[in-house]
Design brief:
The complex is a heterodimer. Chain A is α/β, with parallel strands linked by helices. Chain A is globular. The two termini of chain A are about 15 Å apart. Chain B is an alpha/beta fold. Chain B has 2 domains: about 230 residues, P-loop containing nucleotide triphosphate hydrolases (Rossmann fold); about 80 residues, no CATH class. In chain B, about 50% of the residues lie in helices and about 10% in strands. Chain B is globular, with a radius of gyration of 23 Å. The chains are: A alpha/beta, B alpha/beta. Chains A and B meet through helix 1, strand 2 and helix 2 of A and helix 2, strand 3 and strand 4 of B.
Chain lengths: ~140, ~375
């Protein structure tokens, strides 16, 4: 729940040809244990599928896990899709994975709020979500 | 704000539909007005409930149904309900993973809901979310839920047609009786029919349904219908032919048996429309909806009254010390409310009677018995 006692909804998403879902599972579990409602996308989703799920589920947070190195291609497609449905402004988009610093800036320009690298504590991410979950 | 949201929803804005359901789920301020506004745009969608034990293959089958309806040019809404943790309130809503066949198709609106909290408002939230999808113009609305417990049975009452999934080898017939699933199903699906033991499950199911039917027939010959689970025994049974729930075998993973299931669902729909049952269950449903809202509103009213008196704890202590008892406390707390009601009724003696005269009396009483 956030500060007003509202249940926070999150989509934990794996995008593209990337089969590494341990991180996504850890995050999904941590979010659940923090009292969030978590929707997990499953593996190998296209940007369009992630957009569809984010729009329909009306999640507060979209957490994209990506370790394939294709983040510069895939993530902007997701954020552009969200924008098309008027969902970018009030969705907190987070990216987790191995993202070089330069790329992180590119992603932030594309509408990503924050990028979390390996070793980030789940508490840190949960706290960030609680503090930044959009007003509804 | 509300008007704007409804307008956008009616105009086909997906985001507005999503936000409407969020508002409903959160019981956010203004949600009642929102649903009130939506209600008159509803009544066109066919609502199908799919229930069954965890792992029975509900989500996969729902995905296949949605694909088939889309191929017929119909639009589909899906509400998938998953349990939430009673400890943290958190939930992992996993049904979406199985919706592979409709990935990227915006005309399948899939929404995951958690059985949030213990307030018992799940059936209200589901009913209202179905209304949103209906008003949006979805032709078919599928409500998917784990079939265990009263909550789920209530949820399933939102649907016109209920499909119950039974996995092969799910125990002997006593198990089925215990689960109470025979009463709620209009169509039974033995999914994973390629697994060993499925023939036996199909056979057992058919036998159980046959027994139910015989018991129902007994009701025709003079005995009161009050305890009969068969929905056709409520007074109009003489004109309405009974529906015989078919048992369909499917393999959701491969799509085998899905056409037969679609036929069975369509048959039930035709039966509902042809027999007048549809109008009947709608009346029952609206009566139930009103009753649920009243119950919730009364509870809120009572909660306010309790707060005003400083909460329950002093009463609890008094009960523990044997100074008073729970019944006396309840009487005392309810007194101001019932006094208000009585005073109100006294001032408008004339109008009190017109309220009991509406047409939904029989369904109202019928329902009143099974919830008390």
């Amino acid at each position: 729940m956030d500060s007003e006692g509202r249940t926070i909804r999150c989509l934990v998403a794996k995008v593209g040809l990337d089969g590494h879902d341990r991180g996504a599972h850890v995050i999904a579990r941590a979010f659940r244990d923090a009292g969030f409602e978590v929707i997990y996308s499953g593996l190998h989703k296209s940007p369009a599928e992630i957009v569809q799920a984010t729009v329909q589920e009306d999640v507060d947070v979209l957490a994209i896990s990506i370790l394939s190195g294709a983040h510069n291609t895939l993530v902007p497609k997701v954020t552009a899709g969200l924008d098309e449905y008027g969902a970018l402004a009030d969705t907190l988009v987070l990216v987790g994975g191995i993202i070089p610093d330069d790329d992180a800036d590119t992603l932030k320009d594309a509408g990503v709020a924050e990028v979390f690298g390996p070793g980030t504590k789940t508490e840190t991410i949960i706290e960030y979500v609680r503090d930044h979950a959009p007003e509804r | 704000m509300t008007d704007d949201l409804v307008e956008r929803l009616l105009a086909g804005d997906h985001r507005a539909l999503a936000r409407t359901i969020t508002t409903i789920e959160n019981r956010a301020p203004g949600y009642r007005d929102l649903v009130s506004e939506l209600h008159r745009h509803t009544g066109n969608a066919e609502v199908i409930g799919v229930t069954g034990s965890p792992g029975a293959g509900k989500s996969t089958l729902v995905d296949k149904l949605a694909v088939a309806y889309r191929e017929d040019g119909l639009t589909v809404g899906v509400i998938a309900i998953d349990p939430s943790s009673p400890y943290t309130g958190g939930a992992v809503l996993g049904d979406r993973i199985r919706m592979a066949g409709n990935a990227g198709d915006m005309d399948v609106f899939f929404r995951s809901m958690s059985a949030r909290g213990s307030l018992g408002g799940l059936s209200t939230a589901t009913t209202d979310a179905v209304k949103a999808l209906d008003a949006f113009g979805k032709d078919k609305v599928i409500v998917e839920t784990v079939g265990a417990g009263q909550n789920e049975v209530d949820v399933v009452k939102t649907a016109d047609t209920v499909a119950v999934l039974v996995p092969p080898g799910s125990g002997d017939d006593v198990q089925m009786l215990k689960a109470g699933i025979l009463e709620i199903g209009d169509v039974f699906v033995v999914n994973k029919a390629d697994l060993p033991g499925s023939d036996r499950t199909v056979q057992e199911l058919r036998e159980m349904l046959e027994l139910r039917r015989d018991a129902g027939a007994g009701g025709h010959h003079g005995h009161g219908a009050a305890v009969d689970p068969d929905p056709d025994q409520d007074g109009t049974a003489d004109e309405t032919p009974a529906w015989r729930p078919p048992v369909v075998e499917t393999v959701a993973e491969t799509g085998e048996g899905v056409p037969e299931l679609l036929d069975a669902l369509a048959d039930h729909r035709a039966y509902l429309e042809g027999s007048g049952r549809l109008a009947e269950i709608e009346r029952t449903r609206y009566a139930e909806e009103i009753r649920t809202l009243l119950r919730e509103d009364l509870r809120d009213l009572l909660a306010d009254e309790l707060d005003a008196r400083g909460g329950l704890s002093s009463y609890v202590e008094a009960v523990g010390a044997r100074e008073t008892d729970p019944y006396a406390v309840a009487d005392e707390l309810i007194a101001p409310i019932s006094e208000c009601v009585e005073r109100q009724r006294a001032t408008e003696t004339g109008t009190g009677e017109s309220r009991t005269g509406n047409g939904s009396d029989d369904s109202t009483t019928e329902n009143g018995t099974d919830e008390q």
